Amino acid sequence: MGGSFDAKIRVYIMKTMQKQGLSGAELLDNRKYNKSTAFTAQEREELGLRGLLPAKVCDAEVQAGRILRTLANKHTDMERYIFLVALLERNERLFYQIVTNNIELTMPIIYTPTVGQACKEFAQNFRKSRGFYINVGDKGDIRKILDNWPPDDVKVIVVTDGQRILGLGDLGSNGMGIPIGKLQLYVAGAGIHPDQCLPVMLDVGTNNEEYLKDSLYLGWQEKRLEGDAYLEMVDEFVEAIQDKYPTALIQFEDFTTGNAYKLLDIYKDKCLCFNDDIQGTAAVALAGILAYERASATNLKDMKFMFLGAGAAATGIGELVVAAMVERGMDEAEARKQLWFIDSQGLVVASRDKLASHKLGFAHELEAMDFSQALEVLKPNVLIGATGSPGTFTQEIVEQMISFHERPAICALSNPTSKAECTAEQAYTWSKGKAIFVSGSPFDAVTYEGKKLVPGQGNNAYIFPGIGLGAVACNLSRVTDDMFLIAAQTLAEFVKESDLASGTMYPRLSEIRKASLAIAVAIATKAYEKGLAQAPRPDDIEAHIAELVYDPSY
Question: Could you say which of 85, 156, 160, 310 has the lowest number of CB atoms within 10 Å?
């Protein structure tokens, strides 16, 4: 997928010019092959670019420096987001060079937390269509209209119906910003080729009253499909994808809890797919827990967990933690008793009527009680928030946690930053610097009594790009549950002692490509062992996968 850019551009341009009479100006408008002022004098002569560019030839490093300087001069992250989108539209390779080489700077801009605001403003900032939109009016024609998408070799698809975007709720077709952002991280974080990525908005309407009345809203402006009609449309989509792109991985993203579990149950054994909110979040959270095991010197089997929130993300984490405990030799029933959940009605207990199916495995024998009471009785080592409700980890709650354990883990996982259960500064201040803090969105380091404490960001970007790269590399037929356990264990191995000493449970984001490659190798290896890989097994799996990685340099 990498290779010589110069060789590729000459072949492409010469063939295209012969077929279509492509001029130099048209080349500069082609985002995939344009490299702007980096074209050499010889290339400008050969490609009809003389007179169309300033005199100075600038290499990619100089171009990147110019972009980063302009980025720094922008006043808000939304301005930076729009600026980077514009760069992508005119020079795709330079965009990915900058994102890949400056991932700690750019990921909070192209993804969480800024992507939440970008989704809210998606319609008003709409310039050029990116991604593929399937709406209710397309029902019956989904396979037909897929032929309108130009690239034929799609390998990774991220699809949402926009109903539960981060912690922001129903954003309808404005939620397209999520698949776009996720796939940019597939490219930057693992090296999937941009042409192999397809963002999809399954626009089944919206129940957001504001959008139903907004003349600027761009989606299907009717109430959402529900029930059988909804499932029929999803089924048509999946069948169309399997027909058009039979080896493509489908990542379900930001569906409501009920639909997320329902769709995963329907399709996980029928096609190559996973749900990132359930399984990806679980893997990244477990990786942090495995690192916390080292930092706290507490065996996983001896830990107790309490979850504030019992939706797809929370119970997905719970199921994977149980799997990890079982792998360590625990009885599953005993492992489940180490995990407790709080939902809108209080502690999830066995005596409660009409519990959702995904909560049943964590409904234990105990009297009903509220959050604070449950903390006092159960004394968890790890507190995990997945509520979308900011401020729910109060000073009282944090102080309770440090009264139970010397170094409790406080995990405020809700996205974006505005929805976090507490901030890093609050967690460190209220715990007198003792808590180990993990968040879903990034927080700056905090200095407490002279010691620098670095929050760990439990971002799914540590997991899903590696899963995708592994799937592509071996032509995976199914994503199995144990692959997320493997991914979590692999990521945890990247956490250094120096990371633990600073209080962070994750490696630096700059390590993300190395971590993704390691996860991809682990996934592909497991796939070959289980007979789930459809491609021939290479002699050296790691070398084979490394060769596939997209290189945006020129």
Answer: 85
